[in-house]
Amino acid sequence: MNYFFVAHICALAMSWAQPALTVDRFSACVDVGVEAIAGGVDPALAVALSYTESRFNRDAKSNRGAYGPLQIKPTFHCPNRRLKGCDLIKAGIGAIIRYRNRYGSDWLCHWNSGNRCYRKSRRFARIVDKRRKLLRGER
User: Is the pTM of this model over 0.85?
Assistant: First the structure.
């Protein structure tokens, strides 16, 4: 993997959004992809997840206490268990690794729902995987 691939998949993902996303969102996408490479995670997967969760919004906050482009909960995934001082992208990539190790092939479903997979969370996983395949040029 290289950084040109990350820029390419971010440009592709940015084209999905209507209206077009901002330069800051593109920068967040690239940061997610670069951190994914550094953490040994498929950047297309991390970018697809970030697009699905927040449209690459660094300031995204859910009503359930999830933050950042990958929508992580600081109490579970930040080193100090607090939002302040937490690198949300790095923590998100670490969370992907932990979820993959804990839940195996069903990890995306659990990412969305927690300990149990439901119909809605399985649909979420299919959407992310479909986007990952599009970014990779797979069918």
Answer: yes
